[in-house]
Design goal:
This protein is of the alpha+beta class. It has a domain at 36-76. It contains 2 helices and 2 strands. A hairpin with a 6-residue loop joins strand 1 (36-40) and strand 2 (47-52). It starts with 8 loop residues before the first helix and ends in a 7-residue tail after the last helix.
Length: 77
């Protein structure tokens, strides 16, 4: 995404949303790696939730993470 990421409207929206809520970050690291969130169930349940950042600051829905985590069935001992 490199420089093209800085020209996207959604990136600037995410930046201002984070700035308004008080997030400052540490500005260390390369800064061009997008992240993601996975919720993986026990044994053969597999991936219950997958969220990949499509642009900088793209957040996962907390209720979706909690809902996926509740679906995890405990391993049989």
């Amino acid at each position: 995404m490199m420089m093209s990421g800085f020209f996207r409207f959604g990136v600037w929206q995410n930046f201002f949303r984070a700035w308004k809520s008080g997030y400052s970050g540490n500005l260390e690291g390369e800064g061009f790696t997008l992240g993601g969130v996975y919720v993986i169930g026990a044994e053969r349940q597999g991936v219950l939730l997958e969220h990949r950042e499509k642009e900088f600051g793209d957040k996962v829905s907390l209720p979706a993470v909690l809902e996926a985590a509740e679906k995890i069935k405990p391993q049989a001992s």
